[in-house]
From TrEMBL:
Cytoplasm found in the keyword field: yes
Transmembrane stretches, start-end: none
Record localization: Cytoplasm
Keyword match Cytoplasm: yes
Protein name (Swiss-Prot/TrEMBL): PTS sugar transporter subunit IIA
Gene source species: Enterobacter quasihormaechei
């Protein structure tokens, strides 16, 4: 089963987790990381790293963030490059997580990434999708090597 790390500004992540648990019961391999004003990015990264390791049993972890480009998204993006089967999703909402919850047990991380973006909710994207739209910078010199 895919682990979930819900990470949002203020208390939103914890509220989403509590609401999901009220509906579905205790959620295994699921943690909330709240990003409070004044929290250092170093501390945020440490909290998210702990959550990653607590939720990953080998099937992969999905970081579910509220805003693309914000501190939780950036921290998750940096971690995702160091871990296999790790995805970063932005623009999440409670209704979207309620729809996607049952798919945690049946999809791999890449399938989950495509499924959550395919839901078509406004503002939902993934790090992978963003990188496909904006490929990494390549020097022209590197393109013309013989």
């Amino acid at each position: 089963m895919l682990g979930w790390v819900i990470t949002c500004h203020d208390e939103v992540a914890q509220e989403m987790l509590l609401t999901l648990e009220a509906r579905f019961g205790p959620l295994a391999q699921c943690r909330a990381v709240n990003y409070w004003r004044g929290l250092s990015t170093n501390m945020l990264s440490r909290m998210m790293c702990d959550a990653l390791h607590e939720t990953d049993t080998g099937d992969g972890v999905i970081f579910l963030t509220d805003r693309a480009g914000a501190a939780p998204y950036r921290s998750a993006a940096l971690m995702s490059h160091k871990h296999d089967n790790c995805e970063v999703i932005s623009g999440i909402s409670l209704p979207l997580l309620e729809v996607m919850y049952p798919l945690r047990a049946t999809l791999n991380s890449a399938e989950f990434r495509h499924a959550i973006v395919a839901q078509g909710m406004p503002g939902v994207s993934s790090l992978w999708h963003q990188q496909k739209k904006n490929p990494p910078f390549v020097l022209l010199h590197d393109l013309y090597k013989h």
